[in-house]
Amino acid sequence: MKSESTTLGFRQRLLEASRRRGSKLILALDLFGPYDGRLDNAVRVLNETKEHLAAVKVNHHLLLPYGLQGLRSVISACKDEGLPLIADLKMNDIESTNLNIVDSLLDYGFDSVIANPFVGREEGLGSVIERVHSKNGGILFLVYMSHKGAGEGYSLRLEGGELLYRVFAHRARDWGADGVVVSAKSADKIAETRQIVGEECLIFSPGVGAQGGDASSGISAGADFVFVGRSITESLEPSKTAAKLKSFQELPPAQTRSHSWVPE
């Protein structure tokens, strides 16, 4: 028999976790460093910061070297703390592959996945959205990224004059996505996206801290949550840094761990 927490939809689970901890902060466990210590470091950072978090996001930094079975310790830690777990795959493939991806993620204990709406609905994401929701999971659409070259793609003007990121926002609303990802460095685009998607679709903003974005400005523009990675994972005091970000305090310059490691 499923517990009440697993029968709630992703949006409800996330909002409940956010309310319980008074936080709009989502930890991006994007760790660098030697593979034999990266997973232990991820669990350490998670344990040190969990009281300040609304959720956790994992991407290729952990998923590629360890796989889903190798991440059981991270998945279990999130489940034990009631922290929804988001897979940042920017999923962008054909329907059969996408279905296999979401089945694997949800069966192993992830709660949501980030997808690229560029792939389209028919034989792309249409059935995937239905599958995710049938398993009480969530799907987030990538609308505007945080790196310097983001505008080269997401701000392309299509035939008819509409900008690509606005098309993606409309798709999120019309196709039933649970949320969208829009850079915290682009307050104007957060505000535009909010006008398009309405209040039921959550907005998640990356790019805070190491990439130059500000948590408070992202939330003020209309974001519901902020993703923060390196500012926390490379901090010498992850808990204190997470506490400051949770309360939207500006982070002073601080000593961080080096992430210059590359595999031999």
Would you mind describing this structure in some detail?
The protein has helices at 4-7, 10-21, 35-49, 60-70, 72-81, 95-108, 121-134, 151-154, 164-175, 187-197, 215-221, 230-233, 238-246, and strands at 25-28, 55-58, 85-91, 112-115, 138-144, 179-182, 202-205, 225-228. With 264 residues, it is of the alpha/beta class. It has a single domain (4-246), classed as Alpha-Beta Barrel (TIM Barrel), CATH 3.20.20.70. It has an 8-stranded parallel β-barrel with strand order 1-2-3-4-5-6-7-8, surrounded by 9 helices. Helix 3 (35-49) links the parallel strand 1 (25-28) and strand 2. The longest helix is centred in the N-terminal third of the chain and has 15 residues, at 35-49. The radius of gyration is 18 Å and the shape is globular.
CATH-defined architecture: Alpha-Beta Barrel
Mean pLDDT: 90
What's the gyration radius in Å?
18 Å
Overall strand count: 8
CATH class: Alpha Beta
Order of helices and strands: HHEHEHHEHEHEHHEHEHEHH
Overall outline:
globular
The percentage helix is 40-55%
Assign the structural class, choosing from mainly alpha, mainly beta, alpha/beta, alpha+beta, or little secondary structure: alpha/beta
Number of H/I helices: 13
The structural domain count equals 1
